[in-house]
Specification:
The complex is a heterodimer of chains A (about 290) and B (about 300). The relative contact order of chain A is 0.17. Chain A is α/β, with parallel strands linked by helices. Chain A is built from 8 helices and 11 strands. Chain B has one domain: ABC transporter involved in vitamin B12 uptake, BtuC (Orthogonal Bundle), CATH 1.10.3470. The chains are: A alpha/beta (about 290), B mainly alpha (about 300).
Chain lengths: ~290, ~300
């Protein structure tokens, strides 16, 4: 599994070395929230150009996994190396898309401004009008904004106010924003949530294409594995405070999941290859307040 | 040519150039115009971020506390300007210490607590002005604005504070925009969102204190919120929007002072009604334009995808 796909990509530059290098490495990692262990003894390796999904029931600590990688939640045990450094030291190399964001319909900021914040939003000072005529660096930043907007296919609506766009259009622009700073690692927290089926398929295909062509490691939290199943190199399945990692067809099996949940779980395969997990605490519960568009 | 004869009852002639030149022959009008200009620029810029952050209610509260601030300052015999700034900054610190859920604006418990501060401030101002000598015209000027009696020294203070506030904002602008529009991602990129919000709150406090000295503490929206709201109705481009907010503020400020010189109406009323008129005209024309665009987009989608696909 660790020898998985090692797309050469475009990530040659940078300190953390060659293509296929480990971008996310967790060793015997344990995370706690409010003193309660969320998951413990987790080992994960995600390499450049790999597409990994974090799956599991609600409350299993999927979002906590992304926050631990970002360094926003410290590990209480074990070690982590993110792009070759401890978490929190390489934030400029990580593109992050938090969970369930939709913008206020009245927010008067254009999509292109939002994407631009991904390039230079953490810089001090104000953008000077006309800087592009003088500074090559300012020109390069503007070019990068247009490039990522084109990459996600948002050129036709990027100059409209973000609040007026549909959920799918907003999600594409947010992915462009996360990509804008040329990250080595993309962390996406349920980006398919609140999208309709055609948009789920389109965004999943887009993320996979970015992963291969840009050589970026992608870690995506997902509620439903099926829209991304065909693209995944690796699945990190969190349940019962533990994790199972590996290729999707090895992890999402009745055996592995039963062991993880410590209760009999059945994985059914539909004729079109879609997987259905039956018997786990996974199925929608009353506390599962999902956002309906 | 110069219609400088009517010191007590200045009258409008049909010669606009002469009318405007008449204004500049009186030092108190020059001071008022300078103060109006400074306040319009600062109010437009800080107001643009305030509207984007949905903090208009906070802005209003920070201005209202200027009433007890100024009344109290007069009562103890120091300058009203000092009272405006001291109370506004103190209120900003109090509001900043209220633990928030990380979200900004109206839809939080912050609004209830901010309202509590506001009510207390108004009551305190009433007490101070009563102690000073009855609820007189002095209190009226503090609440509803006055352009008479602005001193050159006050103009210098307004200018100094405005330049300092704009300098801080210039350093912070991009990070503030990021933290406003997208706080979770900004935090992940290493921006200290809460600290940034607190600095902005202080900038808003000094701005509200400046604007209140012209518009009165109750009518700060005329130069702090309405120009920015008008600009945001016109454009979603940040730099252009900031420019338009300042332009609308200057227009409202200059025209109001011009009219106030010739007509007996109070400055607060003129500023507010002019700003309101500009906003209504822009909002109505924008709504019409947006409805037309929306109709075009919907027609396009309908012709592209005849069958709807649900999720």
């Amino acid at each position: 599994m660790t020898d998985g796909r090692t797309s050469s990509g475009t990530a040659a530059a940078g300190t953390a070395g060659a293509a296929g290098a480990a971008v996310v490495e967790l060793r015997s990692a344990t995370a706690r929230l409010d003193g309660r262990p969320v998951w413990s003894d987790v080992d994960i390796t995600v390499r450049a150009g790999e597409f990994a999904a974090v799956l599991g029931p609600n409350g299993a600590g999927k979002s906590t996994m992304l926050k631990a990688i970002l360094g926003l939640v410290p590990l209480s045990a074990g070690t982590a190396r993110i792009v070759g450094s401890p978490p929190g030291h390489t934030r400029g190399l990580i593109g992050y898309l938090p969970q369930r964001r939709s913008f206020d319909a009245e927010l008067r900021i254009r999509g292109v401004d939002l994407v631009r914040l991904g390039v230079d939003g953490d810089r001090w000072g104000v953008p000077l009008p006309g800087a592009e005529r003088i500074s090559a660096r300012a020109r390069a930043r503007s070019a990068r904004v247009d490039e990522v907007i084109d990459l996600v296919g948002a050129t036709s609506y990027a100059r409209r106010p973000i609040g007026e766009l549909s959920g799918g259009e907003q999600q594409r622009l947010l992915i462009a924003q996360a990509l804008a700073s040329r990250p080595r690692l993309l962390l996406l927290d349920e980006p398919l949530e609140s999208l309709d089926l055609p948009n789920q398929a389109a965004v999943a295909a887009l993320v996979s294409r970015i992963c291969r062509t840009e050589g970026v490691a992608v870690v995506m939290v997902a509620h439903d594995v099926n829209p991304i199943l065909g693209y995944l190199d690796q699945v990190i399945y969190l349940a019962g405070g533990r994790a199972a990692c590996g290729p999707p067809r090895e992890v999402i099996t009745s055996e592995t999941l039963s062991r993880l949940y410590r209760t009999p779980v059945e994985v059914l395969s539909a004729s079109d290859g879609r997987l259905v997990v039956v018997g786990a605490a996974e199925s929608p519960t009353p506390s599962d307040h999902r956002h309906h568009p | 040519m110069i219609a400088g004869t009517g010191t007590l009852e200045p009258e409008l002639t049909w010669n606009l150039v002469a009318d405007v030149r008449a204004l500049f022959t009186y030092p108190f009008m020059v001071d008022a115009l300078q103060a109006g200009t400074i306040v319009a620029v600062l109010g437009g810029v800080i107001g643009w971020f305030t509207v984007l952050r949905r903090q208009a209610f906070t802005a209003h509260t920070l201005a209202v506390v200027g009433f007890p601030g100024a009344a109290g300052a007069i009562l103890v015999g120091v300058s009203a300007t000092a009272g405006f700034f001291a109370f506004a900054v103190a209120a900003a610190v109090v509001i900043g210490l209220i633990p928030s859920s990380g979200r900004v604006g109206y839809a939080t418990t912050e609004s209830a607590l901010t309202g509590t501060v506001q009510a207390t401030a108004l009551a305190l101002g009433f007490v101070f002005s009563s102690l000073y000598g009855g609820f007189s015209s002095g209190a009226g000027a503090l609440l509803f604005g006055s352009f008479l009696g602005i001193t050159p020294e006050q103009v210098r203070v307004l200018l100094g504070v405005a330049v300092a506030a704009l300098a801080v904002l210039a350093v912070l602008a991009r990070r503030l925009l990021f933290a406003t529009v997208d706080p979770a991602v900004a935090a992940a990129r290493g921006i200290r969102v809460r600290a940034t919000s607190l600095v902005f709150l202080l900038l808003l406090a000094v701005t509200a204190a400046e604007v209140a000295q012209i518009t009165g503490t109750l009518l700060v929206f005329a130069l702090l919120i309405v120009p920015a709201a008008t600009a945001q109705a016109m454009t979603a481009r940040p730099v252009l929007g900031l420019g338009l907010a300042v332009a609308v503020g200057l227009l409202v400020s200059w025209v109001s002072l011009f009219v106030a010189y010739y007509e007996p109406y109070p400055i607060g009323f003129l500023l507010t009604s002019l700003a309101f008129a500009v906003y209504v005209v822009v909002a109505l024309s924008q709504r019409q334009a947006r409805t037309a665009t929306l109709r075009r987009v919907l027609d396009l989608r309908r012709s592209e995808a005849p069958a709807g696909t649900g999720g």
